[in-house]
Write a structure and sequence with these properties.
By secondary structure, this protein is of the alpha+beta class. The protein has 11 helices and 14 strands.
C-alpha cells in the first residue's frame, strides 16, 4: 500500500470526506503544507514520483513550494548520511567566513602550510588556491579519503594539469577545504554549521555529534566530513539558498556568494549543459526550469534548488541498509519525472 502522503492539507482532506468544520493545517516539522492543486501541480504527476520512489527503494522525498510542503513521503525526519552533499553544506560556511575575512580565496596551499603524506605536494601543486579547490580545479591529484573507485580510476596523473586549469571532481580538494576551514577559523565544521546555520534556520534534527571525520590515513592526512542529516533539515538548507541566503530578514549567507557559487565555472557535460560551480552542480536555464542547482550524494541522494520556480527538492536513500536497490540510473529517471511534474509551474 502506498505510504501516506503528507502533502495534502487538512482543509483538502476535510473536503474529500465531506466535512466542512475548520481545523488547523497539518505541518511537516516546521513547514506548513499546501495543496498541490492550489499551486498548479498535478496530483497524477506527483503520484508518479511517489510510486517510482516506492518501487525503486527510496527512503524519503520532500518537495517544497514557496517554503511550504506540497509532497512529503517516507522517512523525512530520519537522519541519513549526506555523502557528497556535505560539499554543498560546507559552501555556506565558506560564504559566511569569507565575508568576515577569516578565509581568503587567493591564499595558496603553500601559504596555508597544506601538504599531504608521501608523495607530498610538489611546488607547482602548492600554488593551488582556495578558489581553485572550491571549483575542484586544484590540479592536485593525490589520493583522498572518501573517494570512490571511479574517482581513483579517472584521477589524472600527478602534474598533468597546472592549478586552476582543469576540472576534475576531486575529493582531495573538498577534504582539504575542510582542513583549511578549521585551521583558519579555529572552529570545527560541525560546531560552526550548528551555530551559523542549523540553529538560525530552526533545524530540528541536526546535532553537532551528527558530523563525522572520516579518515583514511593510508591515503591522506585530510579526512572527509560527512553529515548525518534529515530530509526535513536538508530542505531548510535548500530553502535558505532559494532565498539567496536570507532567512526571515537576516542575511545568513551573502547573496553574492550564493550567486557566484551557483553559476557555471566548469562545463562537465556538454550534451545537457551540466556544469560545476563552487561546491554545487548547475543546470542551464535553457532546460526551461529557470535557475537550477543541486548536489547529489553517491549518485542517489539529492538536494535540488530551483529559485525561479520557488521549489526545493530532497531525495534520500537509506545507505545504512544491508541492501540498497536505488541506483544512479534511477536518480536520472527521478530527475525526468520531477521535470515533468514541475513543468506545470512554468
Amino acid at each position: 500500500m502506498r505510504q501516506q502522503r503528507l502533502h495534502i492539507s487538512a482543509l483538502l482532506a476535510l473536503l474529500l470526506i465531506g466535512c466542512s468544520a475548520p481545523v488547523a493545517s497539518e505541518k511537516v516539522g516546521v513547514f506548513e503544507t499546501i495543496s498541490p492543486q492550489a499551486v498548479g501541480l498535478s496530483m497524477e504527476k506527483l503520484d508518479a514520483l511517489v510510486d517510482f520512489c516506492e518501487e525503486k527503494g527510496s527512503a524519503a522525498l520532500l518537495i517544497l513550494y514557496d517554503g511550504k510542503v506540497v509532497l512529503s513521503w517516507g522517512e523525512v525526519e530520519t537522519r541519513y548520511a549526506s555523502h557528497s552533499i556535505r560539499k554543498a553544506l560546507l559552501n555556506s560556511l565558506y560564504g559566511i567566513y569569507v565575508q568576515r575575512g577569516d578565509l581568503e580565496l587567493d591564499m595558496t596551499m603553500e601559504e596555508l602550510g597544506i601538504d599531504d603524506i608521501p608523495p607530498a605536494l610538489t611546488e607547482e601543486e602548492k600554488q593551488a588556491t582556495v578558489f581553485d579547490l572550491l571549483r575542484s580545479r586544484s590540479g592536485v591529484y593525490h589520493p583522498a579519503a572518501g573517494e570512490t573507485q571511479l574517482m581513483a580510476d579517472t584521477r589524472p596523473e600527478r602534474g598533468s594539469h597546472p592549478p586552476g586549469s582543469f576540472y576534475y571532481y576531486n575529493n582531495w580538494d573538498f577534504n582539504v577545504l575542510g582542513t583549511i576551514f578549521e585551521q583558519q577559523t579555529g572552529k570545527g565544521i560541525f560546531e560552526a554549521f550548528y551555530e551559523e546555520v542549523a540553529q538560525p534556520l530552526g533545524m530540528i534534527h541536526f546535532r553537532v555529534e551528527d558530523g563525522i571525520y572520516a579518515y583514511e590515513r593510508d591515503k591522506s592526512l585530510h579526512p572527509a566530513y560527512p553529515f548525518l542529516i534529515s530530509a526535513h533539515d536538508m530542505a531548510l538548507y535548500g530553502l535558505l539558498y532559494m532565498n539567496d541566503g536570507n532567512w526571515k530578514g537576516r542575511q545568513i549567507v551573502p547573496a553574492a556568494w550564493i550567486a557566484e557559487s551557483t553559476k557555471p565555472h566548469s562545463l562537465m557535460n556538454p550534451e545537457i549543459g551540466l556544469s560545476y560551480g563552487m561546491l554545487w552542480n548547475v543546470l542551464p536555464e535553457e532546460l526551461g526550469l529557470g535557475r537550477f542547482f543541486f548536489h547529489t550524494g553517491v549518485g542517489i541522494h539529492m538536494l535540488a534548488v530551483l529559485p525561479d520556480l520557488k521549489v526545493v527538492v530532497v531525495h534520500r536513500v537509506d545507505t545504512f541498509a544491508d541492501e540498497v536497490s536505488f541506483t544512479g540510473d534511477d536518480l536520472n529517471e527521478l530527475f525526468n519525472l520531477l521535470g515533468a511534474a514541475l513543468a506545470d509551474l512554468r
